[in-house]
Q: What sequence folds into this?
């Protein structure tokens, strides 16, 4: 065996173990009996320890030194493995294990603090997590920008400056669009109650309509919707709320977007560094285009309207046009995860600016709640009523995920670019979507983007798919056209 | 940290990883999407490789050399760890991995051969497995008996000679009892069809009635009933057959017996060598006493009769006495797993004698089917009609599990001993069982046996529980009394 072959064989085994560790997380959220929690913590820790030992295995360095670059696939594999190995080598073991311990603890403290709306109970833990992550960022940045070093974990090649420029481009037009919409009468909201079994039947039909392969996946209920796993075993979860079936339906489509990306990656990349989505931003571009540009389109919601009538009878929305407006209703709200397409990125900008200031040391944790509330009032025009609707609403910072939030907006921007290219190539797509048939749309995404997995760097795979450099314009144009029509702007 | 503490910390992590690997098996039988099979094989292999590396870690030898014996718990831990380490060290890595590969392949060949009733398709693979296991046995036995060396994996301290003596004691009285019973008219069999949801409701009630802790476990459907896991996460499966609800009910009770053993082990032993059932024979004694001596007793079946009437209405059995006879109906059959209490051990004896001859080299694989069929006709009085009802019926040999079968009968003998002791201590137990209340019975087993986990050697834990040496007599006395009454012998 060549050094490269040995390296890949070792890596395959590591990737297989990562799949096992990931499925342990899936199990915990879906199947695990409550009383197993303490034992599960030890199981997680044992898997993490095994994986850590493998990631710092000095043979990786030796194989990397000896490996011949080879073809495009080999070069991409080596790039991923080298990046990860060098990253791991930069962070002292002491710091890595303190971070693991502290974020696990902070997560519990955050959940309790959010339940009690008690910011003070969370801030000391948050500060500890923040300082450890800043310390880690300093190890990784080797003199460069701290925030960039953290962002790089989720979006290789990204930078805080580039993200800031993206938000500068998004902000004025989104703010203006939001103001214009909220000036208009709102479409009617969904009323009444929708039986869980009916929601789950439609959810399953939606998953199949968007091409989710149930022979290599499954759908379960969980508190939070998520997609888990790569390769031949990619599982999703959804949830139901009797008053809000859209939460179930669009969670399902969103997670199918993530899962379909994983399922469509070239089978030759199975259990190699190329065998998974290349970045959080690109991943989110898939979940978002499935959920929004396709799933919330006038054409597809026409099919969904019929499906809902078939399941629930007359549910108080008279026709597909009114249903389309209801699905895309824009309203005031505190919560990021419940935000509509127009306001979602405003929630992210707020978090990006605050977390960038925290990492830079320009904002201290003691001032975070006030900074959040001021910014929220300025951007949304009303005050945060309680911390669980404000600074305590998201899990990310408790887990040390600084640098993660902007990948959501990057995903939205990429989904706008991909959608424009898709519509350019498939001008008559709406006729398919109106029949609930997404095969050509999802096939286009699989062919132009998803199948490549980690072969190209994030921005490159988008550039190749759309045939040019990505920009914010397509997303903004799409939003203004869509909501302009719905709201008669 | 002392050498002992380091050893136990290392072992805890290994045990946690074993729980993860075991749960991967549970997932495969209950949740895994079909198309994930090839990836799962790599995940299993990766976990097996990690566990193998840990088991041969030379630090274990160093810690064992330095560790002070300490108290009873420490001595038992060291005994288990040493036994396993020495066993692993005796088998060359080449042989261990060839065995893993061959048995995995043989399992698939067996399943296909059984499906087609094609013995010839299986025999070459079986011979390969057999020769590898004989080779392994030679490594382990270091001059001693090959069969004993294999049996020791499942029943530490057991020997082929002792098992043979056990069967010599069982055989004449079981043969006579069987003949007397089959000379009598059979009780009526269950007729009709029983809805799956009703079977599963009763199955759940039975699990709870026998003290299964669903806060630390769960029940799912699978092709084969099994119990999986130790400590705080012990899951069971059951199955349903519309015509045969007893298959579901008694599979559930049987697996609850296994699971309850794991669930009742002293919490201080969690994720240590003492934190799991001590041997296959002792494990089977628990599943069997739950299923048979308690679950098929006249008192408990009275409760089950009422529960079935409540669920299914009049199902054609007039009263609890008739129901008791139906539950305990003895009939001719080919299949071990479907055998009644009287005939079960006759199926095991046949396998024990054949596999002992195979391992000794006194029987060759080419003659196995004829030997099976001759012996079956002699013991059961009618001919095997097809290989899937004969030599191909069990999975064990394809997986290399030579030496495993007799632990089933050992479990039955132990369950007889435990039942006699239990009845001696709780003379009025039937009043409880008639109410579906097993708490005192299962509490007795938890207190006298289950809580000890691996603290004592198999035969010692039975001896301590019953207050004397185990023998075949209590099981035989119980069977003759029970079936004598049902069949008016």
A:
């Amino acid at each position: 065996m060549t050094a490269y072959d040995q390296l890949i064989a070792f890596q395959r085994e590591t990737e297989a173990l990562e799949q096992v560790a990931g499925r342990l997380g899936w199990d915990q959220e879906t199947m695990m009996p409550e009383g197993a929690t303490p034992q599960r913590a030890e199981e997680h820790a044992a898997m993490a320890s095994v994986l850590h030992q493998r990631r710092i295995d000095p043979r990786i360095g030796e194989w990397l030194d000896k490996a011949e670059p080879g073809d495009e696939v080999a070069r991409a594999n080596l790039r991923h493995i080298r990046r990860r190995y060098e990253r791991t080598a930069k962070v002292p073991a002491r710091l890595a294990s303190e971070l693991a311990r502290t974020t696990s603890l902070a997560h519990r403290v955050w959940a309790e603090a959010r339940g009690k709306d008690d910011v003070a109970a969370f801030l000391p833990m948050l500060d500890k997590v923040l300082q450890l992550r800043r310390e880690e960022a300093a190890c990784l940045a080797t003199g460069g920008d701290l925030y960039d070093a953290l962002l790089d974990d989720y979006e290789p090649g990204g930078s805080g400056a580039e993200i800031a420029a993206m938000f500068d481009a998004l902000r004025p037009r989104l703010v203006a669009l939001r103001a214009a919409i909220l000036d208009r009468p709102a479409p009617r909201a969904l009323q009444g109650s929708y039986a869980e079994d009916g929601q789950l039947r439609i959810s399953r039909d939606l998953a199949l309509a968007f091409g989710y392969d149930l022979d290599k996946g499954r759908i379960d209920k969980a508190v939070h919707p998520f997609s888990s796993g790569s390769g031949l075993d990619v599982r999703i979860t959804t949830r139901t709320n009797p008053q809000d079936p859209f939460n179930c339906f669009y969670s399902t489509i969103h997670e199918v977007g993530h899962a379909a990306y994983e399922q469509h990656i070239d089978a030759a990349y199975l259990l190699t560094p190329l065998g998974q989505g290349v970045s959080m931003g690109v991943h989110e571009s898939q979940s978002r285009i499935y959920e929004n540009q396709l799933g919330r389109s006038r054409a597809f919601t026409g099919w969904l309207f019929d499906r809902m009538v078939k399941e629930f009878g007359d549910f108080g929305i008279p026709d597909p046009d009114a249903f389309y407006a209801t699905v895309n209703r824009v309203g005031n709200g505190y919560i990021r995860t419940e935000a509509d397409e127009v306001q979602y990125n405003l929630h992210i900008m707020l978090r990006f600016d605050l977390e960038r200031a925290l990492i830079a040391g320009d904002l201290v944790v003691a001032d975070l709640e006030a900074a959040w509330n001021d910014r929220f009032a300025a951007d949304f025009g009303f005050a945060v009523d309680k911390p669980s609707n404000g600074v305590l609403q998201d899990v990310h910072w408790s887990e040390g995920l600084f640098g993660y939030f902007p990948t959501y907006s990057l995903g939205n921007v990429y989904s706008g670019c991909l959608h424009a290219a898709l519509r350019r190539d498939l001008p008559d797509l709406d006729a398919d979507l109106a029949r609930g048939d997404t095969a050509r749309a999802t096939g286009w995404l699989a062919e132009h983007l998803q199948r490549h997995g980690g072969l190209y760097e994030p921005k490159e795979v988008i550039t190749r798919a759309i045939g040019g450099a990505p920009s914010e314009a397509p997303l903004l144009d799409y939003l203004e056209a869509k909501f302009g029509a719905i709201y008669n702007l």
The domain at 139-489 of chain B is CATH 1.10.1370.30 (Neurolysin; domain 3). Chain B has a mean pLDDT of 97.
